[in-house]
Specification:
globular; two-stranded antiparallel sheet
């Protein structure tokens, strides 16, 4: 069964815009036979997770552009949200009531964690209409080569969603989320050897910042496309209303 990660419903009148909106969206193939384990699935938030009032000129007061969702306990959503300013930490719920319900699932690179992630990912793609899954962030907690069974499990997930890999960062184990430096859109990403040595309390790790840049671009593309569809639909509706009024006159 083929399903577009971008599942938002748009009016039939916006068909041309809808085609443009889905051109760059990751296409997935969902297995029909796999039954989801209810014990692994995440609940939907009962209300908006973001309740701050936006303040002009203060980007951190704005609603997150996307949300990190933990597939399991200790998956790293709070750490990723701390390092990437545009992202919010949804914890272990789907942010179905928020302004931008665009989700990045977080998981650790272990077989138990990836098994749960598989079910959570399918849940997001199949069953939670209010959200859009942008991809999965896989965080390595040990250095060195990834064991073959984990590689094989990642190969199972790759056709379902975009995967971003965060290699082992030793200092993350020694740093509280509130002490981490964060990346914001437009910030320089220094990939040089010197840049990689900058402490994570002073600058977000370059590989993580790169992931943030890609996620933000994907989120922005979807939001822009959705806005264009809504604008086109409203414009056409207004024109039809004017036409009806003229005919009645």
């Amino acid at each position: 069964m083929t399903l577009m990660v971008m599942k938002k419903q748009v009016a039939e009148k916006g068909k041309d815009s809808r085609t443009n909106m889905t051109n760059d969206v990751h296409q997935v193939h969902l297995p029909r036979a796999m039954k989801l384990n209810k014990e692994f699935l995440l609940p939907q938030a009962s209300q908006s997770l973001w309740d701050s009032t936006p303040i002009e000129g203060e980007p951190l007061s704005y609603s997150p552009a996307f949300w990190f969702v933990s597939a399991h306990g200790g998956a790293g959503s709070s750490t990723m949200a701390a390092m990437l300013a545009p992202g919010g930490d949804a914890g272990r719920v789907w942010p179905v009531h928020d302004e931008h319900p665009l989700c990045v699932i977080c998981t650790k690179a272990t077989i138990p964690a990836l098994e749960r992630t598989h079910h959570v990912l399918l849940q997001g793609l199949r069953e939670i209409e209010a959200i859009t899954v942008l991809g999965v962030v896989v965080i390595n907690e040990i250095p060195g080569k990834i064991p073959l069974p984990i590689v094989h499990k990642l190969e199972v997930l790759e056709p379902l969603a975009k995967l971003w890999r965060v290699d082992y960062i030793p200092s993350l184990r020694l740093t509280l989320p509130g002490e981490l430096a964060s990346w914001s859109p437009g910030d320089e990403i220094d990939l040089s050897r010197k840049g990689r040595k900058i402490p994570i309390v002073e600058r977000a790790p370059a590989p993580v910042a790169q992931i943030g840049e890609e996620i933000f671009a994907a989120a922005a593309k979807i939001v822009t496309a959705k806005t264009n569809v809504q604008t086109d639909s409203q414009k056409e509706s207004h024109e039809n209303t004017q036409k009806d009024s003229q005919e009645k006159e």
